[in-house]
Amino acid sequence: MQFPENAVEVPRPQRWDEPFDPEMSDSEVAWLLTRKPFSQLDNKAFPRSAPLAAILRNDCRLRRHRPGEVIVREGDYGNSAFLVLSGNVQALLTRLPPAQLGRSSPVKLTWRQALKQLWNQSLYPESRTPADVHSQLGPRIEQADRRTTVFLQDFDGVLSDRQDLSLGPNDLFGEIAAMYRSPHVATVVAQTEAVLLEIRWQGLRLIRRDGRFSQQLEHHYRQHWLKTHLRQTPAFRYLPEDALQRVADSVRMRSFGRNEWHNDFEKTRKLPPAEQIEAEPVVASEGSHPIELVLVRAGFARVCHDYGSGHRTTAYLSKGRLFGLEEIVHNVYRPEGAPPIPLQNSLRAVGFVDTLHIPLEVVVEDLLPYIRRSELPRPLLSTRQQRTAVAPLPLPTTGRPEGEAELPTGLLEFIVQNRLNNGQQAMLIDLDRCTRCDDCVTACAKTHDGNPRFARVGPRYDRLQFAQACMHCLDPICMIGCPTGAIARDAATGTVRIHEPICVGCGTCANACPYQNIQMVEVRDQRGRFYRDQQTQFPILKATKCDMCQSQPSGPACVAACPHDALTRIDLSQVDALQDWLTQRGVPGQEAT
Predict the structure, then answer these.
(1) What average pLDDT score do residues 440-457 get?
(2) I need a labelling partner for 72 at 20 to 30 A (CA). Which of 16, 101, 385, 557 fits?
(3) Ramachandran angles phi, psi of 415, nearest 5°
(4) To the nearest 10°, the Cα dihedral for 427, 431, 432, 434?
(5) If we measure between CA atoms, which residue out of 322, 247, 227 comes closest to residue 284?
(6) In 3D, which of 145, 165, 130 has the Cα closest to residue 64?
(7) CA distance 283 to 356
(8) Which helix (H) or strand (E) covers residue 464, if one does?
(9) pLDDT of residue 97
(10) Confidence class of residue 249 from pLDDT cuts 50, 70 and 90?
(11) CATH class of 225-406
(12) pLDDT tens for each residue of 507-546
C-alpha cells in the first residue's frame, strides 16, 4: 500500500494502552493465575488478542483495605466486581443510617425559613460554612494506597449485634451492579486487613467467555435476584410461587449493544435518525413469529417498524417493560379460524439493553392465567390494518402506556437520539409560552448560593427546549467512579444529590456526565475568601448541579417562578407524562434544531 507524501505514520491506539492498574507486575499476574477461579478457567476460551493473563494485567487491579474502610456503598452505581483474595469483608445487609456514609437527607424549610434564606443571602456566590466543605462528623476521609476513601467511625460498634454476611477468600461481590448497571444493594466494609482484586466491567465481560465462570455468575443471579426482578414487573405480581419458579427456571438472559454507551454518545447523536436506527442491534424482528416474551431488565430499547425505505419509531421501553405480550395474547385468545399475527414491530437496543426472554409455552401456561383479564392487551390489528384504519386502535393497558403511540414519530426519535429518555426529571420549556424573562434562572440562583444550577440552553424540537439541567437519570453514569460516594441517589425521592462535605472535587462525575450538567466550582466562606487546601494550597472545588430544590417548600424554584407556566420537570423515561403535558398545549411539529 502506498501512502500520500504528506501522511504521518503513528501507532494505532490500543484498548490496553492505559491499564486499570499501571503497577500490576508479572509476578502478581502469575500469582493470580494460581488462585481460584482463574486457575480453573480454560485458556482456550479467550481470544489470542485477549488472553486471561492480559485481562488480569490490564483490566484488574489489586486493592488493599484496612479495617473499617468502605469498599462499596449501598445505592452507589459501579462498574466493577470484587474478588476477595485474603482477609474478610462484611456485607451490611441491614441499611446504615445515611449519616454513617456521609450522606444526609435535606431538611425541608418552612415558608418563613425559605423567605429568610432569600433575604439573608451571602454577598458572594458559592459560599459555604467550614462544615459544608469538610465532614467533621460521620465517616473519616483518608488516603489509602493513594486512593481517597471513606472509613466508618466506630466500626466495631457498627458491626456489633448485626446479622450480616461475612465474605472471605474466593468470594465475589458487586458483579450484579457491574453487569446490569444497577445500584449496589448492600454496603461492604473491610472487616480485617483485606486484599481484593477489582475487575472492571470490560474485563469481567471477557472472563465470562469461560463457560464455567459465566455459569457461576448466572447461577448466582438466578439464585438470589431473578425472582425479585420478575416480581417488580406488574404482569408478574399475582403469580403463585410455583409458577414464578417455573418462569424463572425458563428465563434466557441476553445483552445487546455496549454497556458503556456514553463513550459513543457524541458520535451517534449526530447521525441522521435512519442511520442511527439501522446501526442499533436487533433484539426482536418485525414479521417474525412471537416465540418468547421479552422483559427489559436494564437500559433502553426502541420499538419501531418498517416505513418506506426506513423505520418509524413508535415507542421506547425502559426497565421493567414488556415486548411481544400484545401479539402473544392476540394469538392465544383470537377467535376460532382467525390467523395468528407476527410481531408488529421490531425491538432495537438503544446504546445498551439487557433483556430476559421467556418462552412462549411458559408464558401461556404459567403467566397468562394469572394476569387479570381487564389488564390483558386488547386484540390487535395487523400493522398494515393499523396504518389504514380510520379510528385509532384502543391502546392496551399492559405494554405501551396509554397515549404513547400518539406522540409524533419525529419527537420520539429526537428524544432517543439525544438520550433524553434517560431523564427522570428533565427540564422542558415550552418556547411558545416562554418570554425569556429569565425568572427561572434568577430563582435558581437565589436558592443556590448565587449561582444557577442550570442553563436555559439545550437541544430544541419545534417549540420544545430540553434545558441543560441535571435530569436525575435512570442510568446515572455520573455516579460511576466517585471515590467517596459523594454523588448518590436519595433513597426516598430518587433525586441524584451531591453530598458536599465528602466531595473531594476530583471532577469524575462532571467528566462522566454525557449531558454536561455538572459543574465544578471554587467555594468560599461567608466573607468571600476562597477555601484552599492546607497542604497543597490548591483551590477547594465542589461539584454542583440541580438538586430539585429538595429543601424548598415550593419544590423546584425554576418551575415555581415561571409566570407563564412554560417550564416543567418531566420523567422522559416513560412517555405518558410527556403526552399528558403536550395534550394541554397541542402536539408540536416535526422540526428539530
Answers:
(1) 90
(2) 16
(3) -65, -45
(4) 80
(5) 322
(6) 145
(7) 11
(8) strand 464-466
(9) 63
(10) very high
(11) mainly beta
(12) 989 998 989 999 999 888 878 888 888 888 888 889 999 9
| Strand segments (E) across 119-183 | 140-144, 147-151, 165-167, 172-173
Torsion sign across C-alpha atoms 509, 221, 216, 213:
negative
Contact assessment for residue 286 and residue 306, using Cβ atoms and an 8 Å cutoff: yes
CATH architecture of the domain 15-102+152-216 equals Sandwich (2.60)
Interval 44-100: pLDDT, tens: 888 888 899 999 998 899 999 988 888 888 877 777 899 999 999 988 876 666 666
For residue 153, what pLDDT is reported? 55
β-pair type (346-359, 292-307): antiparallel
Strand 292-307 vs strand 310-317: parallel, antiparallel, or unpaired? antiparallel
Q: CA 547 to CA 197: how far, in whole Å?
A: 35
- Looking at 192-344, which runs of residues are DSSP E strands? 194-200, 252-257, 282-284, 292-307, 310-317, 322-323
Nine-digit cell string for 258: 455496549
The sign one gets for the Cα dihedral 31, 37, 42, 47 is negative
Domain with CATH 2.60.120.10 in the chain: 15-102+152-216, 225-406
- When pLDDT is averaged across residues 549-577 and rounded to a whole number, the result is 89
Contact indicator for 313, 304 with CB cutoff of 8 Å:
yes
End-to-end Cα distance, the chain? 43
Centroid of chain to Cα 405: 25
| Residue 531 to residue 540: CA distance in whole angstroms | 6
Q: How far are the Cα atoms of 133, 250, 298, 328, 401 from residue 367, in angstroms, in the given order?
A: 53, 12, 21, 11, 20
